[in-house]
Amino acid sequence: MRLLRLTAGIGVLVPLPLVSAQAQPREPLRVTRHAPVDTVRPGDVITVTFDRPVRDEMERLPDPAKFVRLDPAISARIDWRDPVTLRVTPTEPFAPSRRYSVVVDPSFEADDGTRLQLARRATAACC
Q1: What's the gap between Cα 26 and its chain centre?
Q2: How many CA atoms lie within 13 A of 86 on its CB side?
Q3: 59 part of a folded domain
Q4: Which helix (H) or strand (E) holds 8?
Q5: Integer Rg of the chain from CA
Q6: Euclidean distance between the first and final Cα of the chain, in Å?
Q7: DSSP conformational letter for 100
Q8: How many whole angstroms from its chain centre is CA 104?
Q9: Which residues contact 13 (CB under 8 A, 6 or more apart)?
């Protein structure tokens, strides 16, 4: 009987810390890297990698054309390589002696409810 009460008490106490740990806010979504880092060549593909998957399925990923832009603007295909990595593939070559930036706006939300805190800019110079 005494063992039964002790077990029942543990069953009630154990889930409480788990619930409070889950209720803590998650860290904001972060860009961990981009490539190329300094120099982009005319035919390069630019990638931007987040610290965790934005969605659990490729089919549910948000349309990156709505929150990613190139500065200066050039024609490019913007898509997801995988749930963690954006890919920017120019359809025209980068011009020599120009600096290009890929800007990721914080307007989209990951599955876990997090967002980038600020717009993120990755810049590289051509050739």
Answers
A1: 14
A2: 30
A3: yes
A4: helix 2-13
A5: 22
A6: 79
A7: E
A8: 9
A9: none
In a 3-state reduction of DSSP, which class is residue 20?
Answer: helix
Alpha carbons 44 and 85: distance in angstroms, whole number: 16
Taking the C-alpha atoms of residue 9 and residue 18, their distance in angstroms, rounded to an integer, is 16
Total domain count, the chain: 1
39 phi and psi angles, rounded to 5 deg: -125, 130
pLDDT in tens, the chain (127 residues): 554 454 444 444 455 454 444 555 689 999 999 999 999 999 899 999 999 999 999 999 999 999 999 999 999 999 999 999 999 999 999 999 999 999 999 999 999 999 999 999 999 999 8
User: For residue 91, what is the domain's CATH number?
Assistant: 2.60.40.3710
Burial bucket for residue 14 (CB in 10 Å: 0-12, 13-18, 19+): exposed
Nearest CA among 23, 34, 32 for reference residue 113: 23
Nearest to 26 by CA among 87, 121, 109, 82: 109
Domain span at residue 51 reads: 27-126
Rounded to the nearest 5 degrees, what angle is found at the Cα of 125, between the Cα atoms of 122 and 126? 125
